[in-house]
Amino acid sequence: MSAPIRVVIADDQPLLRHSLALIVAAADGLEVVGEASDGDEVIEMSRHIAPDVILMDIRMPGIDGIRATEVIVSQSASTRVLVLSMFELDEYVHGALRAGASGFLLKDVRPEQLVEAIRRTHDGESLFAPSILIRFVERFLDARPRRAGAAPEVLTARETEVLTLVGRGLANTEIAATLSISMGTVKSHIGSLLSKLAARDRAQLVIAAYDHGLVAAL
Question: Is domain 5-128 in CATH 3.40.50.2300, yes or no?
Answer without folding.
Answer: yes
